[in-house]
Specification:
With 386 residues, this protein is of the alpha/beta class. The model has no long low-confidence stretch (mean pLDDT 93). α7 packs across α13. 49% of the residues are buried. The protein has a 7-stranded parallel sheet with strand order 3-2-1-4-5-6-7, sandwiched between helices. Strands 10-9-8-11-12-13 form a 6-stranded parallel sheet, sandwiched between helices. The chain has helices at residues 13-27, 51-56, 73-91, 103-114, 134-144, 154-162, 186-201, 203-209, 224-227, 230-247, 257-266, 268-275, 288-297, 306-314, 329-334, 344-357, 372-384; strands at 4-10, 34-40, 64-65, 95-99, 119-122, 148-151, 179-182, 217-220, 251-254, 280-283, 300-303, 319-321, 337-339. The protein contains 17 helices and 13 strands. The chain folds into 2 domains: 4-185 and 368-384, Rossmann fold (3-Layer(aba) Sandwich), CATH 3.40.50; 191-360, Glycogen Phosphorylase B (Rossmann fold, 3-Layer(aba) Sandwich). 48% of the residues lie in helices and 14% in strands.
Length: 386
């Protein structure tokens, strides 16, 4: 029987990581049934933020690199659409697989559907309900351009139903008659696989930092709503500094270059104080495996990242989120994630709660059993194999 041909689209660092679960499953259980073509849009272009992951995570390197690079939303999305359309027409896949909510996600969805190639959206149905976020627009539009929508959680599945998607649809499926399916989260697959790899490969990294288990707080801040606003930036870092000093708690902060530039340019006095602070350890961006080790060993995580807050749950660590809302609403309802925005009082309140109650928190299996990639690919075969 002819193999099903899929175009696997990545562009940003989290997508490369997500796609690795699908690539591993294809190379293993589905090697005789599915042919994978990996397309890297180049949305995250430099080696430290993108290419290195293909080596470190032991996954298939891209067959096509579109080398789009960074830029304003419209320009970047348009360039990806233009270049990826050529690849789609040349490769003629049975379906195009996209992930999450980046400009690469939206551009690939639009390019594929306008040429009548069906789209599979992994992480469909995720909603923050804040349409001022570019990611929210991307994920909504990608869902409505898809033939197969893969929901990672019950909440995401219910969001799709509330928008008119119908789980009772039957084959043949199309953009006008899409299939909606609940599978679990491929990032939980990855957390299980890469946690073991990280322990084997990255012990020297932890030794070099000189930190003990649960004796530090991990801080990651990169979202432009925080870095581009001097008031929010100052509020967040001043509160982090205050909590660190009051509790003699080391903070490990692998900060994105844009965050460091924003601190230096927008709040130079705070930047100077943080740079020389004995408890505030600013380090360069870390690899995914290094981040996993930090997440596993931290006492508490403070972040504005969607991925990191979910990984905090995988590794049973409480998390303070420096945003007004989150797409991972089940974590907030569970009490293991608290939304603090950039509000000092709410950050302190969340800190006090987690320090006092951290050992009593529960981390239910919201994201499946670690076999989401296999479930997804079985569904892809069922929907698209003629």
């Amino acid at each position: 029987m002819k193999k099903l041909r899929i175009l696997n689209i990545v562009g940003a660092r989290p997508q490369i990581i997500k796609a690795s679960a699908i690539s591993r499953a294809i190379a293993g259980e589905f090697r005789n049934e599915i042919e994978e073509v990996v397309v890297h849009t180049g949305q995250h272009y430099d080696r430290e933020l993108s290419d290195v992951f293909f080596d470190e995570l032991e996954i298939k390197r891209p067959d096509h690199n579109l080398q789009v690079g960074s830029g304003r939303h419209g320009r970047q999305t348009g360039m990806i659409m233009e270049r990826i359309e050529d690849v789609i027409l040349d490769e003629k896949p049975d379906c195009v697989v996209i992930y999450g909510d980046t400009n690469s996600t939206l551009a690939a969805a639009l390019a594929a559907v306008k040429q009548h190639f069906p789209v599979v959206h992994i992480e469909a149905g995720m909603r923050s309900f804040n349409k001022t976020m570019p990611e929210e627009i991307n994920r909504i539009m990608a869902d409505h351009a898809s033939t197969l929508l893969i929901a990672p959680t019950n909440a995401a599945f219910k969001n799709l139903m509330s928008e008119g998607f119908r789980p009772e649809n039957v084959a043949p499926y199309s953009i006008n008659n899409p299939r909606v399916f609940l599978t679990g989260d491929i990032m939980y697959d990855n957390s299980l696989f890469y946690a073991d790899l990280a322990e084997r490969k990255k012990q020297d990294f932890l030794t070099g930092l000189g930190i003990a288990d649960k004796d530090f707080v991990l801080v990651t801040i990169h979202r432009d709503s925080n870095t581009d606003d001097p008031e929010r930036l100052s509020s967040i870092f001043s509160t982090i500094r205050e909590l660190s000093e009051a509790n003699s708690m080391p903070m490990i902060m692998p900060l994105h270059p844009r965050t460091m530039i924003a601190l230096r340019n927008r709040v130079p006095e705070l930047y100077a104080a943080i740079s020389d602070h004995p408890l505030l350890r600013v380090i360069p961006p870390v690899s995914f495996l290094e981040m996993i080790l930090l997440e596993k060993r931290a006492k508490l995580i403070i972040t504005d990242s969607g991925g990191v807050q979910k990984e905090s749950h995988f590794f049973s660590r409480p998390c303070i989120v420096l945003r007004k809302e989150t797409e991972w609403v089940e974590l907030v309802r569970n009490g293991t994630v608290r939304l603090a925005d950039a509000n000092p009082a709410r950050i302190r309140e969340a800190w006090d709660y987690f320090i006092a109650n951290g050992n009593a928190l529960q981390y239910p299996a919201f994201y499946g059993d670690g076999k989401a990639a296999i479930i997804i690919l079985k569904e892809v075969l069922a929907v698209f194999r003629s």
